[in-house]
Amino acid sequence: QVQLVESGGGLVPAGGSLRLSCAASGRTFTRYTMEWFRQAPGKERDLVAAIAWSDNPYYVDSVKGRFVISRDNAKNTVDLQMNSLKPEDTGVYYCAARVVPSTMRYWGHGTQVTVSS
Fold this sequence. Notes:
Layout: E1 4-7, E2 10-13, E3 18-24, E4 33-39, E5 45-51, E6 57-59, E7 67-72, E8 77-82, E9 91-98, E10 106-107, E11 111-116
Parallel strand pairs: 2-11
Antiparallel strand pairs: 1-3, 3-8, 4-5, 4-9, 5-6, 7-8, 9-10, 9-11
């Protein structure tokens, strides 16, 4: 089992940057593919970016070239650097962990990101 705690959300104007961090508990961090999801108001929770233990990042098309996901296996952390933010990036960002190919995920409590126009 793993516990996840996100930090780094906030209010930022369009075009600005934010860095989200997720700290994971447990001694088997490298087993997990780490993911960032976003849930906009009134919408479903959607995958934004993911990174496997081997540092093989995936991005949804809407954030490619603007967001960077990274992990530090020594510190049990995964970060999401978000640049050139747009109002449509607004939402609650959740950190998640899963052991591929399982679809069962551990979730953090989320952190709010608001991008003003």
